[in-house]
Write a structure and sequence with these properties.
699 residues; alpha/beta; TIM Barrel; 3 domains; eight-stranded parallel beta barrel; six-stranded mixed sheet; 23 helices
């Protein structure tokens, strides 16, 4: 076999929507090595062990693309579908029959003569001429997911047509929800006098009612999804077991309607042992996930046993709930508990997704079904109450899932095994980032009609009035890092952005929910343009928008944006003001001492510029005064939502998460310094929120 030219490799990469290089923040171009390219292409389905295999893989790929009669997915923005690519051998058919099945029922049928369709492109594949024709979809389509079947070449081919509004849902101008404010606190960090060592749905309800009483309409928190809290153990809210199920850690057993019929659970709740254990967990500065979950599980298991032991009026509702994926999830979690290891270490049959009754304990299966039902009931009730005051719950959709979790097991055909998602080097993470999760496979996701992605969005929007999409650039492209390679050695793989935006637009309208796209850091202009075009709200975060070299110091807040002083991955306002994050970066090896001095000088110039600018506006200097002035400035802006990190209001300096660190830091474990009962009476908290409420009235 002849020598393979680099051009062949780059051509093959382009056929799989793989970028061949990336540009770092300094403008330097980094081309992926052939080894990295081959590894990524193998993951995407190319048969390439060495460079010698590339020419044949390119030929096979070209042939496969031309033999795909119609694309698996198409978008009809505002009900108007662009003509589809119909790829057929030249002269193969004189008649093509099309049938469109509408989501809400009914169908449309028509026939076309390929000889009369416009020719877009032509090619010879294995010696045969092929043509790409323009197939029009007549008429307007109602919003929804419709199936188009095309009979051609003696076979039936199908495509999903997503008929979506041209942009995501937004409250009407004049609706109070179009100019509102809210607070942020991770639910694990929230605690009250009744907590079990971390917050739960009842604590969150109290926070929502308090915020509503102050005039706010939103409470934001981190992902609340299912997690491994025993063995295996991974408490990070951004590495969930599933994006389709809730974390039972946040269920309140005392709210269960089954409690009155369960003497065992009532005795546990009233017992001194549980009360003492809960008090000890409340007194700890960090959340002990294992102990909190073990304590709560005692009561939840008792409730589960009582529920299944005797018939009740609730059994019919439960039976309707406990079907399909929910039953499957319960079996999976019970099997994990039996083996105490993630699924990649299971025997081959179980790895393939086949579980038998002997693979798990029946009581554990019932427990996991029962707690998901309780979670659904409690989050539904809470979401309905929260919506009375505004958008209500602001939830967060993480970018990835645990590689040993349920989604990666049951939906493994749409995950790209052998690579990890991450980010290339930037000014902050000079060695790049490996986030450790398995990314979605774009072609396989399209082949299943985006079923998994739609299910993830719907799971959240049943409860959320606002949904934040973590790393919105992932709708366009994601940095893949092959196993055995360093983070900086990855390459970008493109995703069908238009189709994913169409799903977000359609589902946001169906659920009357606002979509926010996290677009911080290094993001290409085309991503921000398309996000704005689809009216996915951008995030306006003060440190990213401030510069002492700018005449106004801060860029104007765009209309409708989600504005805040920071995020959960950033230092608190006081820590930022004092430059404590710079010392963190030195400790992590991301800055040397000379660079750190430059960073401190730049930070001082920035904080002085902010203080000076706000002083001209009538506010005194000092970090607390500047914080109050910044919140008032954001409140008067055209932002759609202003979110306040509650910890900023009492000058917290410790972060909730330090990106790039692991167990050596208390990431995702630090409880708030004050309980809800304490901070809701603190003068500095009340004054800041009163000022923000007044500013929002004049937005």
């Amino acid at each position: 076999m002849g020598r393979t030219s680099p051009a062949d490799l780059w051509s093959l990469a382009s056929r799989y929507e793989v970028a061949t290089a990336y540009v770092d923040v300094l403008g330097r171009r980094h081309r992926a090595t052939p080894e990295v390219m081959l590894a990524v292409l193998r993951t995407l389905g190319a048969s390439v062990e060495t460079l010698r295999d590339v020419p044949e893989a390119l030929r096979v790929r070209e042939a496969a693309l031309w033999r795909q009669v119609i694309p698996p997915v198409a978008v009809a923005w505002n009900g108007r579908a662009r003509s589809l690519d119909l790829r057929l051998p030249a002269g193969a058919d004189r008649r093509v029959v099309c049938r469109l099945y509408l989501e809400e029922g009914g169908d449309r049928r028509w026939e076309v003569d390929p000889a009369r369709l416009p020719v877009r492109r032509s090619a010879r594949i294995d010696g045969k001429p092929f043509r790409s024709l323009g197939l029009a979809i007549p008429g307007m389509l109602p919003p929804g997911y419709h199936r188009l079947q095309v009979s051609a070449g003696g076979a039936i081919h199908e495509t999903l047509i997503i008929a979506a509004p041209p942009w995501a849902y937004a409250p009407e101008p004049g609706d109070p929800a179009s100019r509102t404010w809210g607070v942020f606190l991770p639910l694990y960090a929230l605690h009250t006098a009744r907590s079990w060592g971390c917050g739960d749905v009842t604590d969150l309800e109290q926070l929502i009612e308090w915020v509503a009483g102050a005039g706010g309409g939103v409470v934001a928190t981190l992902p609340l999804l299912a997690a491994y809290l025993d063995e295996p153990f991974e408490p990070s809210p951004y590495v969930p077991v599933s994006r389709l199920f809730w974390n039972e850690l946040y269920v309140d057993p005392a709210r269960s309607p089954d409690l009155e019929r369960c003497p065992e659970a009532r005795a546990l709740l009233a017992g001194g042992a549980l009360r003492r254990a809960a008090a000890a967990l409340r007194a700890a500065p960090l959340v002990d996930y294992r102990r909190v979950m073990a304590l709560k599980r005692q009561v939840l298991e008792a409730l589960s046993r009582c529920f299944f032991a005797e018939p009740s009026g609730r059994r019919e509702d439960f039976a309707r709930f406990a079907t399909g994926d929910r039953e499957d999830y319960a079996r999976f979690r019970a099997a994990v508990e039996r083996r105490r290891t993630p699924w990649p270490a299971w025997p081959e049959r179980a790895r393939r997704g086949v579980l038998h009754a002997g693979d798990y304990d029946e009581a554990a299966r019932r427990y996991h079904l029962y707690v998901q039902w309780l979670a659904h009931e409690q989050w539904s009730e809470l979401a309905a109450r929260a919506r009375r005051h505004g958008p209500g719950l602001y939830l967060d959709l993480p970018l990835g899932v645990h590689p040993g979790g349920y989604d990666a097991w049951r939906e493994r055909e749409v995950f790209a095994a052998g690579v990890a998602g991450g980010a290339p080097p930037d000014a902050f993470f000079t060695r790049g980032q490996n986030w450790g999760f398995v990314p979605l496979h774009p072609e396989r996701l399209r082949a299943q009609g985006h079923r998994y992605f739609i299910a993830c969005i719907r799971h959240h929007l049943r409860y959320a009035g606002v949904l934040r999409i973590d790393h919105v650039m992932g709708l366009h492209r994601l940095f893949w890092i092959p196993e055995g390679h360093q983070a900086r050695e990855g390459v970008y793989v493109r995703y069908p952005a238009a189709e994913l935006y169409a799903i977000l637009a359609l589902e946001s309208h169906r659920h009357q929910a606002v979509i926010v796209g996290e677009d911080l850091g290094t993001v290409p202009p085309e991503v921000r343009r398309e996000r704005a075009r689809r009216r996915i709200r951008r995030m306006y975060v003060v440190p990213f928008e401030a510069s002492p070299r700018r005449r106004g110091v801060l860029t104007p807040v765009p209309a409708g944006a989600m504005a805040s002083l920071n995020t959960h991955d950033m230092p608190t306002f006081t820590a930022f003001w004092e430059g404590r994050d710079i010392a963190d970066r030195v400790a992590m090896g991301l800055l040397d001492h000379r660079a750190a001095e430059g960073e401190r000088a730049a930070r001082k110039r920035l904080t002085q510029a902010l203080a000076t600018a706000l002083a001209r506006a009538g506010s005194p200097g000092g970090s607390r005064a500047v914080l109050r002035a910044l919140l008032a400035w954001l409140g008067r802006s055209p932002a759609g939502i202003v979110i306040v990190n509650l910890e900023d209001l009492w000058a917290e300096t410790e972060p909730q998460n330090v990106p790039g660190t692991g167990p050596e830091r208390p990431n995702w474990r630090r409880r708030a310094r004050y309980s809800l009962e304490e901070f809701r009476d603190r003068e500095e908290v009340l004054q800041a929120l009163e000022a923000l409420q007044e500013a929002r009235k004049h937005a």
